[in-house]
Amino acid sequence: MSQKGKVYLVGAGPGDPKLITVKGMECLQKADVVVYDRLANPALLEYAPPQAERIYCGKLPDHHTMKQEAINQLLAEKALEGHTVVRLKGGDPSVFGRVGEEAEHLVDCGIEYEIVPGVTAGIAAPAYAGIPVTHRDYGSSFAVVTGHLREEKPELAVEKWRALAQGIDTVAFYMGIGNLPMIRAQLIAHGKDRHTPVAVIAWGTLPDQATVTGTLADIEQRLAENPHITNPAIILVGDVVRLREKIKWFESTQVKA
Ligand code: SAH
Questions:
Q1: What is the pLDDT of residues 107-155, one digit of tens each?
Q2: Alpha carbon distance 30, 25 (integer Å)
Q3: 3-state DSSP call for residue 31?
Q4: Dihedral Cα 104, 106, 112, 113, nearest 10 deg
Q5: Ligand 1, from 92, 94, 234: best to mutate by most atoms within 8 Å of Cβ?
Q6: Fold for domain 122-256?
Q7: Helical axes 99-108 vs 68-80, angle rounded to 10°
Q8: What spacing in Å lies between the alpha carbon of 162 and ligand 1's midpoint?
Q9: Ligand 1: residues whose CB is within 6 Å?
């Protein structure tokens, strides 16, 4: 029987292919198999050897996605055949990337693996929009939250929203654009000032990056006025958003194609 291979669970970074880590790039260069998803920039696939097998497991035009169990199995299967496998995920694999489930499965199968962190969109997209997620004068705490909160007991949900509204200075919502009306309503209902600044940053770090800003009170309308702001997008809520006016650098310097 062939020797077992190894799986690298690699963060591809938020969009700009240059934002992958050196270690992530080295993994790609030695890959026999690359299993990649929708948000990993396809330009990165060029760094894998020409003969490497490339397997897409993101959403297809018919919205069908490879099931997580099938992905877990695929990674294990390829490694058991003796291959070096790179599982390439957008951003950081540990942030809403289900890396825990994949790693657990590999442990269960007795397969060696490494996690290679990446630059997450909730920090990178704001940085490219001129918004540092913390700042001594504006925010000393930062949370990442999914906009797709799973069904929870109502009392837990209340506690969570109260904490986000009252206890944390800057909040990045991932996968939240469809739920923006709910997110802003919950934050206001749980005590966040309606005038708190909000930025919605789409296609962060890519040439198409676009940002709209407003406040909790008017962000929904501002978004409706800017229909080009689509997924993937980060909703960033907090006073640090004010800095954008002064230090936005990327959108004002890039040359649009
Ligand atoms: N593991 C990823 C997040 C996966 S969840 C990470 O660490 O970044 C997918 C969500 O990430 C999207 O719905 C969006 O909210 C966010 N996202 C990913 N890429 C983005 C980008 N280039 N610009 C803005 N948001 C992005």
A1: 999 999 999 999 999 999 999 999 999 999 999 999 999 988 656 677 7
A2: 9
A3: coil
A4: -60
A5: 234
A6: 3.30.950
A7: 40
A8: 24
A9: 14-15, 39, 89-92, 95-97, 120-121, 125, 174-175, 201-206, 231-234
pLDDT score of 231 more than 60 = yes
Residue span(s) of the chain under CATH 3.30.950.10 come to 122-256
Pinpoint the residues of the chain covered by CATH 3.40.1010.10.
6-119
Residue 60, pLDDT above cutoff 80: no
Give the pLDDT band of residue 254 (cuts 50, 70, 90).
Answer: low
DSSP type of residue 13 = B
What b/e string do you get for 48-82 counting C-beta neighbours within 10 Å, with b at 16 or more? beeebeebebeeeeeeeebeeeebbebbbebbbee
Joined tokens for residue 162: 């109260």
Q: How far is the CA of 17 from the centre of ligand 1 (A)?
A: 14
160 is catalytic: no
Instruction: Report whether CATH 1.10.260.40 matches the domain 6-119.
Output: no
- 253 three-state secondary structure: helix
3-state SS, one letter per residue, for 191-252? CCCCCCEEEEEECCCCCCCEEEEEECCCHHHHHHCCCCCCCCEEEEECHHHHHHHHHCCHHH
Percent of the chain with pLDDT over 90: 87
Pairing label, strands 6-11, 84-89 = parallel
Model-level pTM? 0.94
Give the relative orientation of helices 154-166 and 180-189 as an angle to the nearest 10 degrees.
Answer: 80
